[in-house]
Structures are given as C-alpha cells and as structure tokens.
Amino acid sequence: MKLPATDLMLEGGLRCAAYEVDAKTWQAHVLKHPLGVHRRVALDGKPLPWNCEGWETLIPPIITAERRDHLLARIASLGIGGLACEVPEIRRRRVASSQTEIECYDCGLPLVAACASACRDDAVSGSYAETIVRLLAGMQEGAAIVVERARLTRTLLRMFRAGLDAFRELTVLTAGVADRGSQPIARLSRGDGVRVELYRSGTVLRQWRTAHRTPPVHVNASIGFLLDMARQGSGGPLSDLCVVTRPWWENHGT
C-alpha cells in the first residue's frame, strides 16, 4: 500500500513522496493503534485500556468495541499453511514482560495478507490510512500557511479559555529531528490528538513513520499537544517556522 498514493506538494517547500509501506509494518501499526494491542502501562504498572488512544471517539469513529471484538476473533481464527497469529492478546494468552514488540514483524507473509484482508473488510485499515492522508492533504500548497513557531505559540496561549472544539480543525506541521536521537522527521499534530510522523531527507518527506492519537482531556492538554513540535535541528527546512491549516489561521491567527 502506498501512503500517500501520489506525491504531495506541501506548503513551506516540502514534498511528501508516495511510499510503499511494508505490509508487516502496516499491520503492526493497525493492531497497536486503532485496535489497541499496544502493551502500554500506566504509572502504577497496570496495563492501559485498549482504547487509551481513543480512535473510537473520532468523528466518525475508526473502530468500536464491538467491531474490535469481532475483528480480533476473526484474526485469531485465521490459519494459512500451518501459520496462525502469534499475538498473545489475540490468542487470549498471557503476555510475557519480555514481549515488548508486537509479533506482526515475524509473521509469515501469507498470514499477514489474510490479516490485512480482514482489516480492510472491517474498514479499520482504510480509515486509519485515510486519517493519515487527510492530515497530509491539509498541508498542501494553498490549503495551509507558513507562520513563525513563536507566533503560533502566542496565538494558542492566548486562546487558553477557548473550548476544545476551537482546536479540533487545526493541524500543525513542523520539520526537525526525532525526540530521541537525531533522525530528521516531519511531525503533523491535529487538535483532536492525532499525530503523524514521517522520516525526512531535507525537504522530502520520504517514508511514513507512525500515526497515533492522544485524545485531549482539556484545553491546556490540546494546546500542549499542538505545541509539541519536532525538535529543531541545525538549520534545515522551516527551521523556526511551522505550517498550519489556512482556514483556521485566517479565523484565529494573530
């Protein structure tokens, strides 16, 4: 699957290249994020609920509890040439503390294809991909505008008394380096908590990295999420600038 399907010219002189996502990588992310097989724990050490990323609260929802149960049962029933899903949560087995990475990366390709087909039939896979593409498309030339990072910060902090709905349609694109290490990335954050990251070579967004969600619980959380930009490296595209949704900026920017 190509993500995006074709090259996109983004505001700020960036180009997002069409990229063929590895099938195992895609299935791993579908299971970890919208399907909630994430193996994340709270500060008290207890597992977080499957829906901690809140994909079922998007409008429209990407997944529901009922659809998730049905889909995981279907994946558990798959058997291709002696292969079966080895994800403990799907097989209703205990997850060992050493099992931090989801087993999709070691799965045989015939079973990966069958799992992908099940996720497409449910539409969770297509909805997840569509969410990613929608964020990227919103940053295309003409649909977005380049502003200074500091200016966006002032605008958002001024709106701390606004409701959560004031930020839901705002997407912020920044170019910099990953939080850990010095890998060049581009980060897109939308006010409803969806975040997409892509690996970057100069001005080219060359490879999709991840997409996850942190649903905002209050205005300050939403503002903090939007201002959690890619760390600035030494020079590079945009530098102290960011790209934001043009209609939102025209209504709220200062």
Please characterize this protein's 3D structure.
33% of the residues are buried. The protein has an 8-stranded mixed sheet with strand order 1-2-7-6-5-4-8-3. It has helices at 23-32, 65-77, 88-91, 109-122, 124-137, 149-158, 219-226, 246-252; strands spanning 8-10, 14-16, 144-148, 171-177, 184-190, 194-201, 204-213, 241-245. The longest helix has 14 residues, at 109-122. The chain has 8 helices and 8 strands; from the N terminus they run E-E-H-H-H-H-H-E-H-E-E-E-E-H-E-H. Helix 1 crosses helix 4 and helix 2 packs antiparallel against helix 4. The protein folds into 2 domains: 21-135, no CATH class; 140-252, no CATH class. With 254 residues, it is of the alpha+beta class. Strand 6 (194-201) and strand 7 (204-213) form a beta hairpin.
State the domain count.
2
Extract low-pLDDT stretches: none
Beta-strand segment tally: 8
Query: How are the strands of the largest sheet arranged?
Result: 1-2-7-6-5-4-8-3
Beta percentage is 15-25%
Provide the fold topology.
Blueprint (H helix, E strand, L loop, with lengths): L7 E3 L3 E3 L6 H10 L32 H13 L10 H4 L17 H14 L1 H14 L6 E5 H10 L12 E7 L6 E7 L3 E8 L2 E10 L5 H8 L14 E5 H7 L2
Parallel strand pairs: 2-7
Antiparallel strand pairs: 1-2, 3-8, 4-5, 4-8, 5-6, 6-7
Helix pairs in contact: 1-4, 2-4
List keywords for this structure.
alpha+beta; 2 domains; 8 helices; 8 strands
